[in-house]
DNA sequence: GTGGTCTAGACCACA
DNA sequence: GTGGTCTAGACCACA
């Protein structure tokens, strides 16, 4: 699993967390499935086990994975997570729309424009 | 001008840049108006002049202000800036919608939800 | 006997010890009754026999079970154990109350609140 | 500040987190006060800066402190925290009482006993 | 000077 | 083998 973009300015552990979160939300990683071991993933991405460890700890803290000591790290059930993530996305968009409104832009119009950009028809 | 939230995790210079950008886009700071001097703003916010300097440099880099040597820093014309910012916001929203789509959410529906959150009906 | 919650962060051997202790204190497992063999329990819980072995050793160390070589592991007399466990619980609660007091909370009031939570009126 | 008990089996970073939390709840560390720098605390306790860093990150995650980059780590306002901690304590006690009940003990009586142990009259 | 990230490598408990 | 903790030390952005 290749999870690091070395040109990306964000910390490596954050990139790993982010990418795996996406894979879980996209159902590429199924609930209950075992994630690569800390050491394996570190080697595959030529990074340090501590860095992967930090990413996995963050995933667990956010509820995307759970750890079984001596066994490995596993993907959590995603139904609840999807709902949570959906709410977060709505809030992030709302936050941008609030700023748009402040500057006098038409929020609804901005939404339509964004939808066009992703090729999503209304 | 009070521009810093010490609880905010983001770097201080970034907060200052952000707040002043908003004030310009909201026309609170008019085009051509002089910004407070680096020293004044630093004192008012009990922070380091270097930090304010960095914020001002960033504002200039992004086109929100321009420096007149020996005179001070001034707010740029906002018409073009508004247009630019509008495009950025659209792109940021589009980016969130792309992720939403990846996870199987209905982008248009998410938009409507976000619009409701800001009390903006279509 | 299903004794493991894989989502639980605690070590598996500890979970097994804990659950069996509870079953003994609740008199579900009667004094003198034979516990499942290490192998059986390991298979039933799809875990390693070494893990179950460690749990049984811990139970024995704490006086909840005793081993008869070549025969198996048996539940100890519970009267004494119950008394001991009662004392431990009192001490654990006292310890929490001490911390509460340190922070300036009213210990007695906290107790009443906890009693309400378990639906136990005085 | 001496925060580590080397005989304590718990991880060092956890001990540090725990002790500082207590100091905050006891108002020994006042809201807004600066905590010792990562390096200073590490030296004082002859441990590694990374370990202190982990403790501080945990304190921040739990809302007991906030970080100002380049400045230091500061104690958060404690009013809300105290309330939160009070609720946690009540729940921890309730949980012990539930177990007690399972084993047939009188929960209210156990509470009184615990109160006596801390010298707290009803 | 301050915290944040990362490496390289050790040692431990657990399964 | 698996994750968890820790050391010693580097380098970075930020103030």
Structure description:
The structure is a homotetramer of 122-residue chains. The first copy, chain A, is mostly helical. The first copy, chain A, has 2 domains: 12-76, Arc Repressor Mutant, subunit A, CATH 1.10.10.10; 79-118. In chain A, 57% of the residues lie in helices and 7% in strands. Chain A has 5 helices and 2 strands. Chain A has helices spanning 12-25, 38-44, 49-61, 78-102, 107-117; strands at residues 65-68, 72-75. A two-stranded antiparallel ribbon of chain A has the order 1-2. The longest helix of chain A has 25 residues, at 78-102. Chain A is elongated and about 55 Å long. The model of chain A has no long low-confidence stretch (mean pLDDT 94). Chain A binds chain B through residues 22, 25-27, 82, 85-86, 89-94, 96-105, 107-108, 110-111, 113-115, 117-118, 120-122, and chain B through 22, 25-27, 82, 85-86, 89-94, 96-105, 107-108, 110-115, 117-118, 120, 122.
């Amino acid at each position: 699993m290749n999870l690091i973009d070395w040109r990306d300015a964000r910390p490596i552990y954050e990139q790993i967390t982010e990418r795996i979160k996406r894979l879980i939300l996209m159902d590429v990683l199924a609930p209950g499935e075992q994630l690569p071991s800390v050491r394996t993933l570190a080697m595959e991405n030529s990074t340090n086990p501590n860095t992967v460890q930090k990413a996995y700890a963050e995933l667990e803290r956010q509820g995307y994975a759970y750890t079984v000591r001596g066994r490995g790290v596993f993907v959590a059930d995603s139904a609840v997570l999807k709902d949570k993530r959906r709410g977060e996305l709505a809030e992030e968009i709302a936050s941008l729309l609030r700023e748009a409104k402040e500057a006098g832009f038409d929020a609804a119009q901005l939404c339509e424009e964004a939808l066009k950009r992703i090729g999503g028809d209304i």
